[in-house]
Amino acid sequence: MATYCRPRTVSEVLAALANAEGRGRILVGGTDLLVHLRKDPFAPTVVVDIKSVNDLPPAVEIDDDVVRFGPTARMAEISGDPFIAGHLPALGASARVVGSIAIRNRATLVGNICNASPAADTVPALFVYGSTVTLTGPGGERTLPLVEFFVGPGQTRCGPDEIVIRIDVPIPDRGHRSAFQRLTRRRGVDLATVSVAAGVDADARIVLGLGCVGPTPLVTDASPPVDLTDPAAIEGAVEELVSIATPISDVRAARDYREAMVRVLAVRAVQSATAASGGVSS
Amino acid sequence: MIGESVHRLEDPPLLRGDARFVADISFPNEAHLRVVRSEVACGEIVDIDVSEALRADGVVGVWTGEDLAAVPPIDFRQIGYDELLPYRQTVLARGSVRYVGEPVAIVVAEDAYMAEDIAELVIVDIEPLDLAPVEAMVLEGEYGLVDQAFCEAHHVLDLELTVGRHSGIPMETRGLIARPDPETGRLELHGASKVPHYTCAAISTMLNLDPHTVVGRECAVGGGFGIRGELYPEDVLVAWAALQLNRPVKWIEDRREHLIAANHSRDQRHRVRAAVDQDGFITAVDDEFWYDQGAYVRTHGATVPSLTAAMLPGPYAFPAYRSRGHIVLSNKTPAGTYRAPGRFEATFVCERVVEAAARAAGLDPVSVRRRNLIWPEAMPFDRQLSVLGTSVVLDSGDYPRILDRLIDHIEFEQLETDLARRRSEGEQVGLGIGMFVEKSGLGPFDDVEITVRDDGSVEVVTGAASVGQGIETVIAQICADDLDMDYRNIEVVHGQTDRISRGMGAFASRVTVMTGSATRFATDAVKDVARDLAANMLEASVEDLEYRAGAIGVRGQPDRSLTLAEVGSASGGELRAKASFTTDHMTYPYGAHAVVVVVDPHTGQVEIERYVVAYDVGRAINPMLIEGQIQGGAAQGIGGALLEDFLYDGVGQPLVTSFMDYLMPTASETPAVEVLLSEDAPSPSNPLGVKGAGEGGTNACGAALATAIEQAIGRPGAVTDLPVTPSMIKALMKAAPAGG
Fold first, then answer.
1. How many CB atoms lie within 10 A of CB A239?
2. What count of other Cβ atoms lies within 10 Å of the Cβ of residue B184?
3. Quick one: which of A128, B22, B83, B703 could link to B351 by a disulfide (CB 3.0–4.6 Å)?
4. Closest in B602, B668, B727 to A186, CB measured
5. In-domain check, residue B118
6. What's the predicted TM-score (pTM) here?
7. Does residue B156 form part of some domain?
8. Higher pLDDT residue, B572 or B272?
9. Given this model, what pLDDT does residue B735 score?
10. CA dist B239 to B28, B196, B209, Å?
11. Residue finishing a domain among B552, B582, B612
């Protein structure tokens, strides 16, 4: 059975993790951790609640060219933030569909990436903005691109003695447009069957973040510039980009359905991004 | 009073948060039970090691199947056949397990948290075996000259159809507290619901107790739907443990347990053939089906497949019909009845046949329905089939008229024109209609005891139960109507087995019919008793007395009267009367669903644009409550048609064990249902003319939605399996359109 601690500083957090010998887990909202606490064969022996840590970065910090999210940034704050809605619309939209209102009041963005579900709602959007993740551990801080953070379902590059201290999302240039699309069996309180975030830059190059179509959320390379007025051109570009998808069949949907839907959603996401606010995101 | 949509008497405590559900009830010194369940679908128990559990802090006791070897398996409450006896479930597994979730041991501890932790210390060693499905028996029913009809048929239809595995998911999970009362020597069962008299009697039999010492105490109930309140292994285990320990024992089911341990339902595969003449008249239906009963046969015995077999012809005349229903035991959670049991499936099959017949004959499906319906002149109509110990005699009905009501309401021709136009503009939109016959008011009896208290208020004691359906309101309305008084002055007591010697409970849409009719007789009796007593007091002959709004008066003399309370107290007590209603036959409400859906051409997702249910219940006591029943029932039927399915992998592991994967429709997926209530055909078989109203909202959802979806995607006849998922719809859209 796990023990619980509530340290006051980041260094105490790291000490608690070090003492847990690889079986420590960070608790903030608990919406994923607590559900699995009893069932997981690798269940933690130490639960480190960081909600009282006083030297964490702020939940949401908006700088000139980057928005920084600390470990306590909750989905409800992100989905309701007008700056994020204006500048990072795919992220705001994806935070808005996580779980239910009650879940969004507790669940955090950092928790969403650390849980490393292939269906993590916010990750495709974080990908298209070129987000980075900063970890801190006994060896100090290190920052890596978010795309390198995920290893497989439930697995990340966050070491057992490290914590994710920040996610940095660069604010796109004027002219960059983005949108998020998610397919669920039900409208509310459901896991995605497929999710897609699309980013379209000022030169009409498309980048897609894809959820539920691989062992981790995926991100495509940027397409060559696309004639966004030509639906066939968008479909052609999407067809190329989504070839990285390798979905499986499960209780929600069959593999071939997911393969078809990732295309449908990608086109919709691109169209939605480019249709929104005349293409100006500020 | 009858026919008025008055407010529910049940609601004030529920709305204030004062209602007490079983989990809200506690007793001093209570202990908490946790069930250790099999994690293997099929296997031999090698060993159950309880030593570590017995050493844990807070443990009160740990027991396995060997400790309960003297407790017999749970018997059938309905439709038991000898062939099914070997498949009854013991309350704890003995020697082998047959499904994931099967109780193998129980832990009792000082609190519920400890019990859950200690249960994880019980080490169950099971040697897995290959899954072993077995056919227990075949139910056969037949009338008419089936083979001859096929020889003479103009068209022969042959369809393979399946319905997935669903269940009712009450908001309140199961739970029970058994409390031995040392003072009275009784064993109280708090939380007994649905069939409290049956539950108490069965537990007393299984545990060798004097039947009078087991008392059921129903409390507030958070939903039933047929599955909650049956006698389950856990109920017996709780009672057994309480007697062992001589202290109260409480068990509250968690949601995961509920999804793998409470009854499932549906899960049928049909191969149906039909003979059709050139005018679209269906001359014979020959249906063979396989019903996945799950691992054991529980209290319902063969009820579900029997209902499928007996009710499949629905409102249609079908001159010849044959049904062969295979009851197959598998390694899934055992199955039982769930709202419109056997009929959701049967109506889907029947209406698929009717649609196919229309296509074969090149006629429109509405006129083919009309051609095949039983005419009102043929009522009462003997189906020549029987179920639940009664022969199926459709008591009354005007089936063409309910179809007309539906067609008129939706402005069918205009709607078809509009939909055709929308389809020509590229929208995938379709209309589906499903007709059905329900059954309700299962006997054989119900008793009611009425007491007029000194303050003039009335107590009605029944042997029925509440599953949230509004029994207190409806029975009070019937009583108030007869006694010409305010229904709010009537208290309806239900689910308390020490208040009335026998009772049938709440299932099969029976309470309004059975308990309501008994109430009508009991109010007549109370008036008679009052008249006899008052005759002396008023110095008048009984023939000169009349009943006036809660009082007995002398005809023609408005100032000479006594209230019922005065009559009672003058006679040295309270005024009381008792009556029974008995019947050998059920009543058969009927109706039709219509649904308009839009299917997303890219994703295959279904959006319900409009949902209409027309339902004839003979006589509506409280239309608001019936509309609520239909709305809620439709939500469950829509869930079963589009979303819900208990899936298993190849080794019998359940893949759907939480609300993450068991997709109930939410308010976002559930349309506001337009309800057309009618009273064309009061039942001749009870004094109120009523028929039950609990299940018609669910019955035809699968049938109507299947038709609507295939019309929307332009693939008539393509939908053969429920639930219809977006994946399946996309696959159907890719396939070539069917020829006809």
1. 12
2. 11
3. B703
4. B668
5. yes
6. 0.96
7. no
8. B272
9. 85
10. 17, 14, 11
11. B582
Please give the average per-residue pLDDT across B440-452, as a whole number. Answer: 95
| Nearest-by-CA chain B residue for A191 | B660
In a domain, B740, yes or no: no
Quick: pLDDT tens for B164-200. Answer: 999 999 999 999 999 999 999 999 999 999 999 999 9
Residue A212 CA to residue A120 CA, distance in Å, equals: 8
pLDDT of residue B231: 98
Looking at residue B67, what DSSP letter applies?
A: G
Residues B295 and B214 in one domain: no
| Phi and psi angles of residue A34, each rounded to the nearest 5 degrees, phi first | -70, -30
Write phi, then psi, for B394 (nearest 5 degrees).
-65, 115
As a whole number of angstroms, the distance between CA B669 and CA B635 comes to: 8
Does any domain span residue A58?
no
Mean pLDDT of B652-664: 96
Please check whether residue A183 is in contact with residue A265, taking contact to mean a CB–CB distance below 8 angstroms: yes
Element (H, E) at B32: strand B31-37
Q: What is the CATH number for B371?
A: 3.30.365.10
Same domain, yes or no, for B299 and B369? yes
Residue A209 lies in a domain: yes
pLDDT at residue number A38? 76
Cα–Cα distance between B721 and B726 in angstroms, integer?
12
Domain enclosing residue B506, as ranges? 445-582
Residue closest to A183 by CA, chosen among A120, A264, A104: A264
Contact A275/B at CB under 8 A: no
Please name the residue of chain B whose CA is at the shortest distance from the CA of residue A268: B602
Split into its structural domains, chain B has a count of 3
Q: How confident is the model at residue B532 (pLDDT cuts 50, 70, 90)?
A: very high
Number of structural domains chain A divides into: 2
Q: Is the pLDDT of residue B133 over 50?
A: yes
CB B645 within 8 A of CB B727: no
* Cross-sheet strand order for the sheet of A177-183: A177-183, A194-200, A206-211, A218-219
Residue-level pLDDT at A280: 37
Residue A279 has pLDDT above 50, yes or no: no
- Nearest residue in chain B measured CA to CA from A254: B727
Helix/strand/coil (H, E, C) string of B36-64?
EECCCCCEEEEEEECHHHHHCCCEEEEEE
Best of A1, A36, A97, A190 to disrupt the B interface by mutation (most B CBs within 10 Å)? A190
The tokens of B239 are what?
């009672």
Identify the residue among A238, A257, A259, A262 best suited for mutation to test binding to B, counting B beta carbons within 10 A and taking the highest. Answer: A257
In degrees, rounded to 5, the angle at the alpha carbon of residue B419 between the alpha carbons of residues B415 and B423 is: 175
H or E stretch including B409?
A: helix B399-409
Q: How far apart are CA B712 and CA B540, in angstroms?
A: 73
pLDDT in tens, B264-302: 999 999 999 999 999 999 999 999 999 999 999 999 999
B-side interface with A, Cβ within 8 Å?
117, 120, 602-605, 643, 645, 647, 655-656, 659-661, 663, 665-666, 668-669, 725-727, 730-731
Q: Is the ipTM of this complex over 0.90?
A: yes
Condensed to tens digits (0 to 9), the pLDDT of residues B406-417 reads 999 999 999 999
Q: Does A39 touch chain B (CB under 8 A)?
A: no
* Tokens standing for residue A119: 């269906």
pLDDT value for A222: 97
Could you count the other beta carbons within 10 Å of the beta carbon of residue B425?
Answer: 8
C-alpha to C-alpha distance for B733 and B727, rounded to whole angstroms: 10
How many angstroms separate the CA atoms of A31 and A33, rounded? 6
User: Does B155 reside within a domain?
Assistant: no
Is B131 buried (19+), middle (13-18) or exposed (0-12) by CB count in 10 A? middle
CATH code of the domain in which A201 resides? 3.30.390.50
State the pLDDT at residue A276: 61
Q: Which residues of B touch A261 (CB under 8 A)?
A: 603
